[in-house]
């Protein structure tokens, strides 16, 4: 195989062992998505640190990897995908200072490790859905973060987002245990986010959302499957009438009102979509 190959993609091939990669001296993208790889190997075994030293994109999602520390042999990585593995921590991330996007979804991670996240000052997207994380933390140096996904974890409150108030555009927190009081913290959604246009709080424990009325840049607000019972509980969303285009409130007690759609449309005139249906 050509040692000057720039991209190597071997998806769904039942590969168990990473080997023979040390000869690729110009590899830019390595994708072994959906295999049976147990260990990140050969990433720095070649001449001058090949193939890891030249990699910019590494996709090892849907394997059975338990340790991601060998990613340290890929100092120029900009995108790292390790979703659906068996990782328990973030060890190894801290050396990847050029990263812009990380997907560690569907692993067994319990903590957002500040020591590993702090050096990632260029990070723009962090995807951590379907783990076992109990607290948002470790983001103080990530001042370029635009997308944050911590869906399907064990969160009870939204906090420690003070460094993202000028950059965060999308925040996904569905399927957690966040109650109303967990959305008013001064370091969390109690702040003003200048660019936040998508907020997903579906399938949590919210009883009202009047506390979100100050998020003036919101275009999409997902609140399905909470415990919101009356229109008084969403009254302050009327202040989002200039920007808000889509709202999901299905599977709340509020939806049982026979005039549910009509009242929402009157409350927020800018809406073009209520739940999955266009107005």
UniProtKB/TrEMBL annotation:
<dbReference type="InterPro" id="IPR032675">
    <property type="entry name" value="LRR_dom_sf"/>
</dbReference>
<dbReference type="Pfam" id="PF13516">
    <property type="entry name" value="LRR_6"/>
</dbReference>
<dbReference type="InterPro" id="IPR003591">
    <property type="entry name" value="Leu-rich_rpt_typical-subtyp"/>
</dbReference>
<keyword id="KW-0677">Repeat</keyword>
<protein>
    <recommendedName>
        <fullName>Protein phosphatase 1 regulatory subunit 7</fullName>
    </recommendedName>
</protein>
<dbReference type="GO" id="GO:0005737">
    <property type="term" value="C:cytoplasm"/>
</dbReference>
<dbReference type="InterPro" id="IPR001611">
    <property type="entry name" value="Leu-rich_rpt"/>
</dbReference>
<keyword id="KW-0433">Leucine-rich repeat</keyword>
<dbReference type="Pfam" id="PF12799">
    <property type="entry name" value="LRR_4"/>
</dbReference>
<dbReference type="InterPro" id="IPR025875">
    <property type="entry name" value="Leu-rich_rpt_4"/>
</dbReference>
């Amino acid at each position: 195989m050509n040692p000057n190959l720039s991209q190597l993609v071997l998806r769904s091939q039942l590969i168990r062992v990473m080997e023979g990669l040390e000869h690729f001296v110009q590899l830019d993208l390595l994708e072994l998505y959906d295999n049976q790889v147990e260990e990140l190997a050969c990433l720095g075994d070649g001449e001058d640190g090949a193939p890891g030293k030249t990699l910019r994109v590494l996709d090892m999602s849907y394997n059975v990897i338990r340790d991601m520390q060998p990613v340290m042999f890929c100092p120029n990585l900009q995108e790292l995908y390790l979703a659906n593995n068996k990782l328990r921590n973030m060890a190894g991330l801290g050396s990847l200072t050029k990263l812009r996007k990380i997907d560690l979804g569907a692993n067994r991670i319990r903590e957002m490790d500040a020591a590993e996240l702090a050096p990632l000052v260029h990070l723009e997207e962090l995807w951590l859905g379907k783990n076992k994380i109990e607290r948002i933390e470790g983001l103080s140096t990530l001042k370029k973060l635009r997308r944050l996904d911590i869906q399907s974890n064990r969160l009870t409150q939204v906090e420690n987002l003070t460094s993202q108030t000028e950059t965060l555009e999308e925040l996904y927190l569905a399927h957690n245990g966040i109650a109303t009081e967990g959305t008013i913290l001064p370091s969390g959604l109690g702040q003003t986010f200048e660019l936040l246009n998508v907020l997903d709080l579906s399938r949590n424990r919210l009883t009202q959302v009047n506390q979100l009325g100050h998020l003036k840049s919101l275009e999409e607000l997902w609140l399905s499957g909470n415990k919101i019972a009356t229109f008084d509980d969403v009254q302050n969303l009327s202040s989002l009438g200039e920007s808000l285009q889509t709202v999901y409130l299905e599977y709340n007690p509020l939806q049982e009102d026979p005039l549910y759609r009509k009242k929402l449309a009157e409350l927020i005139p800018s809406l073009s979509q209520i739940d999955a249906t266009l107005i």
